[in-house]
Design brief:
This protein has 5 helices and 7 strands, in the order E-E-E-H-H-H-E-E-H-H-E-E. With 170 residues, it is of the alpha+beta class. Helix 1 packs across helix 4. Helices cover 44% and strands 22% of the residues. It has one domain: Trafficking protein particle complex subunit 3 (Muramoyl-pentapeptide Carboxypeptidase, domain 2), CATH 3.30.1380. The strands form 2 sheets. A 4-stranded antiparallel beta sheet has the order 4-5-7-6. Strands 1-2-3 form a 3-stranded antiparallel beta sheet. Bound molecules: zinc ion (ZN). Zinc ion binds next to loops. The site of zinc ion (ZN) has 10 residues, from loops.
Length: 170
């Protein structure tokens, strides 16, 4: 696998890892079907489960690509990783140590949901929210459990992009 980071690809096994986490690439049909099944099955618990799963998976990957970077430098690396893994475009530049707003002008989950299922009445981007929480936590050495990311607008709901409010419980 090409890209800017130290992916571990084992050709014999056909596997790719980053930060000890296995990477498997799925299309929007798969990812949105999986998300819909979890939302249908878990109801109001689904967003928290989906977001925490992303935090737990992404945080080791971000620590692996940190290479000494912290703060804004690490958030730039996180933006690059998000795009390399096919999750879309992410802008974390407006985040400071106390949080702020992150924007995804092109979210795989929101665009995929709209393309396969039509508009939603609630935000779609639980994985991106968890990715942002994990990136912020690693960049600012904060416990990921203390980072609260709320999607304030979503492309899948008819907005022009997706926006996320990042806050820290200190
Ligand atoms: Zn969204």
């Amino acid at each position: 696998m090409s890209g800017g980071f130290n992916y571990l690809t084992e050709l014999e096994k056909g596997t790719t890892h980053l930060g000890g986490q296995s990477l498997v690439f799925h299309c929007h049909f798969y990812n949105c079907q999986l998300q819909e099944a979890i939302e249908d099955g878990m109801g109001s618990a689904a967003p928290g489960v989906l977001t925490k799963a992303a935090v737990d998976t992404v945080s080791p990957q971000l620590r692996a690509i940190a290479d000494g970077a912290t703060g804004a430098d690490l958030l730039q690396r996180a933006e690059q990783l998000f795009a390399e893994l096919g999750f879309g475009a992410l802008s974390l530049g407006a985040l400071g140590p106390d949080g702020g707003e992150a924007v995804s002008p092109h979210s795989h989950y929101a665009m995929g949901w709209l393309a396969t299922r039509g508009p939603r009445e609630t935000p779609a981007c639980f994985f991106p929210a968890g990715f942002i929480a994990g990136a912020f936590a690693v960049a600012h050495s904060v416990d990921p459990a203390a980072v609260v990311v709320t999607e304030s607008r979503c492309f899948a709901m008819g907005a022009d992009d997706c926006a996320f409010t990042v806050a820290v419980n200190r």
